[in-house]
Amino acid sequence: MKNLTLRQLRAFEAAASTLSFSRAAEQLHLTQPAVSMQIRLLEDELGQPLFHKQGRGLQLSDAGQELLRHARHILGVIRQAEESLSSLQQGGTRGQLHLGVVPTANYFAPLLMMAFRERFPEVKLKLSVDRRDTILAMLNDHRIDVAIAGYPPSEADVEAEAFARHPHCIVAAPDHPLVGQRGIAWEALRAEPFIFREPGSATRGFLEHLLQAQSLQVNVTMELSGNETIKQAVMAGMGISFMSAHAFQIERAAGRMAVLDLVDMPKLLDWCLLHRRESVLSGVNAAFREFVLEQGAALTQCEVGPG
Description:
The chain folds into three domains: 6-67, Arc Repressor Mutant, subunit A (Orthogonal Bundle); 70-163 and 271-299, Periplasmic binding protein-like II (D-Maltodextrin-Binding Protein, domain 2); 165-269, 3-Layer(aba) Sandwich (D-Maltodextrin-Binding Protein, domain 2), CATH 3.40.190.10. Helices cover 42% and strands 22% of the residues. It contains ten helices and eleven strands.
């Protein structure tokens, strides 16, 4: 692969990520023929196809899947080097911060990023929001360098540094009979209509663990996907639910949702800053890590009291 170029790798990575030459061209601000030509040159250099036609779309070949893994790593290292050199040359922190977060962290991530840019005005911001497994895959593939989530699985090859607490509460509509009561026992929830998150949700897994510890089986009347859908159902009086406190701050302040004063609640997890174990953060990513560990706890505080 003596004649492989960065231009070819960038065209291939964009096309492989979107499975579309036209969308890759839009991302790279090139024409579609220019992207097609770069990939054709790359395939000629490698001596094997990187894509197969699948209906009207594209599918990566085995060679394409293998090259994509290496291309993302190479481009990630080059991006880090460019940002570090740019910071040195300009005498400050510059470049792009591409942060990946799980959906619940999206309730405070923009505030965190804007506070960071107030300190470093030259930084460009990009935010990707997705499920934890997707965010971890983006880290592994060098598509992002830093992320915010809870503690990752033990097998994930990432460093996790806790920077803030993550409270969870039982919530209800403001006119629910249990609202206003103090020291509610878990047993009082047995017959209540309960709205659960979808299977596979980390929030659902946390709740199931708590219910098991209480030897309590509740009346699950509905399963819904996503915090926004569950909030609407709770506010409509369809049942109670277990939620991250970050997700309902606006509704609580507006009096449209209430927190039940359950014994030993709220339950706390940790928010963590994640990055690849083998990578040394530099430039804007290193500055963001330092900022989050220093200021993150204060910027992610939320109200969790009953009512």
